[in-house]
Amino acid sequence: MELDKYKDKTLAVVIPAYNEEKLISSTIRGIPHFIRHVIVIDDCSKDSTKSIIEAESLSDNRVLLIAHDKNQGVGAAIASGYKWARDNNIDVAIVMAGDGQMHVEDLPNIILPVLSGEADYSKGNRLFTGEAYKKIPKMRYFGNAALSLLTKIASGYWHIADSQTGYTAINKKALHTIDWDRMYKRYGQPNDLLVRLNVYNFRVKDVAIEPVYNIGEKSGIKIRKVIFTIPWLLFNLFLWRMKEKYIIREFHPMVFFYFLGFTFFLLTVILFCRLGYMWYLNGSIPAINALAAMFSFMSSSLFSLFAMWFDMESNKDLKA
């Protein structure tokens, strides 16, 4: 096995868990022997998850329980695991869900790009397989695709997709660089982390993994909440990345193109609203208003597309 050449590297699996009493035991027992530490974070579960983890730690000395006194969210649970890995000088920290939705068979493919130095961070991509559309619930599939597009723009990693997957591996350098106390604490954590990795110019690789559903897992994601919170989070992260990476750290004229694109977009909305109002009021469209609206729309589109192209060029070396 190719992993044998990296026997000197210390690997830890981080498992965030909240009300996972049905599947947490089988998840822990499925972790292969070459993983030295299994860090399970109980995010103040209301069921018997914590006691099951404690029982597993008695039979497997690799298992360590980190218990949160109050529920903080999946992102906060992962951050607790990452901080433990950082403080214990772990070479690669892998995140797996506690609900059995991640194939252990995919683990070597997730780890190897990071172990070999090809990437600083690798993540699973369920959309690579031809079975994704059939296996992933349709609402999640299309929601994931939309969020992946927004995450490309926000993060600058234009080559990644399936931004919501939690099957990831991260190296020691990134573990010691990112401020885990500032990472988003809930379901937008993968998106937040990608933006932070981009600001520090870490290389990211997408790895094809098999989608796993209908094995008894119960999703804690409430669509009615994340459909608004994650896009708003991504908008704020995008602005933060522009400031941190292209103004403070190294100035890039791309920010002017994005600013002009956004300005003309707002102007387009105003002009089209005025056009509709005048049409309703007078029964005709003012020619100058129509021309101004179309000019504004074209300007917004061109400035935005040029900004995206500049961003892609600036980040092309971060594709692993």
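Above is the first protein from milestone M3; the second protein from the same milestone is given next.
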Amino acid sequence: MDILRRNNVVVTGNPEGRAVVLAHGFGCDQNMWRLTVPALVPEYRVVLFDYVGSGRSDPSAFDESRYSSLGGYADDVVEVCDALDLDDAVFVGHSVSAMIGVLAARKAPERIGALVLVAPSPCYIDDGAYHGGFSVDDIDELLSSLESNYLGWSAAMAPVIMGTPDRPELGEELTNSFCATDPAMARVFARTTFLSDSRADLATVRVPTLILESAEDVIAPRQVGAYVQAAVDGSTLVTLDSTGHCPHLSAPEATNEAITEFLVKLR
């Protein structure tokens, strides 16, 4: 029960259905899935949680050394799955959670039987022929700005990340989510996120995998989606008619349709 409190775990939906674990991205919390949950609860057991340092997780559980690598977050995912005794769950991870899910599936293959990677990026920094979307200088500048003025960075970056200038309320929501996160913990998660390189981990995926990308996304451009599909054997890539890095908020109907179609095929 301590683990469930630590990560503010919420379980809803059909208790007899296959478990679907929804994992939020950097600066967010489980509320970001509120438009997806209704599409899943009739048939699936839906598990929501907050990473330590986010949402209503237990801040006393924060350990900078643990959460300075994606592996620390993946350990939390596995511990949540163990606490709920999940079997063959589908892990739906947004943004950095996509790679956390890849690591968790390798750590506990009996717990996670399929992956849905929403706007994934295994590496944000350009490297030779690999196009991650950012230069080293870009990431250094991003992190320096975040660390020197987190609230200002949040207000400036959230609308860019959301990518929906015609719907400013979504950018405002993401800004508020960023600003609700403890700045010290957010700085650690940001460094862990934007300096991570999980490209080699993609080859370890052995479960059915769906990759969802937006048609336009400044954080995870389409070259990244193509890279992930090529690296994950047998994976399926769906390009949604959406803009921005949060298609589950900006285009929930298309996102939900792609996820539910994938779930049906897993039966």
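Note on the second protein: Residues 33 and 81 are 18 Å apart (CA to CA).
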